[in-house]
Here is the input.
Amino acid sequence: MLDQMSKAPLIDIQEVCRSFPKPSGKDVVVLENVDLTIKEGEIVGLLGRSGSGKSTLLRIIAGLISPSSGIALCRGDAIDGPPSGISMVFQSFALFPWLTVLQNVELGLEAKGVDRAERRKLALDAIDLIGLDGFENAFPKELSGGMRQRVGFARALVVHPDLLLMDEPFSALDVLTAETLRTDMIDLWIEGRMPIKSVLIVTHNIEEAVLMCDRILVFSSNPGRVAREIKVDLPHPRNRLDPAFRQLVDNIYALMTQRAEPKTVAMEGIPGTGMGMVLEPVSTNILSGLIEALAGEPYHGKADLPVIAGLLHMEADELFHIGEALQLLRFAHLSEGDIVLTEAGKTFAHMATDARKKLFAEHLLTYVPAVGLIRRVLDERPSHTAPAERFRSELEDYMTESYADDTLKAIVSWSRYAELFAYDENSELFSLENPQ
Ligand code: ADP
Ligand code: MG
Here is the structure.
């Protein structure tokens, strides 16, 4: 009996679905039939585009929300509230500003009823391990972003969890800081010094996933499900320049872009299309810069994403976001790891500024439903103005607050460039640029 219990995987997710109700009465299906097991001793990565449901899956495993249907087990027991033995590191960790590093780290132990002396010892060990030695009595505001995220890690590790959940833990840090922290974590793991048994990490950085993980699950969107599982058999320490490493990164790019083909018909209620289209606020300078680079020598409209990322000195995932934005706007499409300009993209590259703005405006109105909506509302109102709040709440029917925020930011900056409508930051009002 005991033997059987110990054989239950750490996490077992079977046919999990999750939907969120919308005010219109219909549900948005975010996860559909997701299967996932995590065994002891492995680092599993979750890759997928924004809005594909990765954080939702993590929240289900952490016991913060429950599945709409399907089974979620931790060591064979149904997850019903936060299981003991699971800790989570968020993108930016909410530290208590009025507590010192030591007090912030001790907090998780207090809740578990660990006595004072033991608490102090465990917290100091975690602080030491994570490279915060000497900062015990510092307050969060005295620390850099990277050091604060280390406190977040220490706080998650201090309880010696079986499973550490990480939701894009390095993405709020600058490139160098992220690299240092990532390398430190991998080293600790390989040296067996991490007081944890397994890791599930969400990232949209393909190289990061290949660097860290034993297995990578690629999520598809609309709705989210596990599209593919990839084993990473490369020995540690892994070298980004190793041809086998590059090959794997390329293959994953190909897989992810293959699934990112644009849907010409906007489907209501499905995240990623229609009003649920999540936009990243990429600047129009960068968008047109990439179009120009692709149109010119030596690409002639088509380039390998990782190669062009290297040439433009960009992080691969950053370029992926830009490529996705161009794809949503139909100036390029992503397929098989390549980014390919559409006819419209090629035309854009050879146009003068004013003509570019007009073409960009047409594409925004045609392909981004939220822009079409804002335009209709502004046209219809006698004042030709409308508060951003009205559109924010509409977007929040389809996506989380922070995605709605990013999406609005993108819309503001793109439609400014296209001279479609103006936006006043102070009054938070949209208005028609040239009311007729
Ligand atoms: P990811 O982490 O892959 O970017 P999320 O899991 O955060 O994706 O979100 C997946 C989709 O579910 C998004 O469209 C998001 O807006 C929607 N969603 C997530 N949480 C809620 C919620 N509480 N209410 C409504 N929609 C939600
Ligand atoms: Mg997320």
Observations:
- The two ends are 78 Å apart (CA to CA).
- Residues 54-55, 167 surround magnesium ion (ligand 2) (CB under 6 Å).
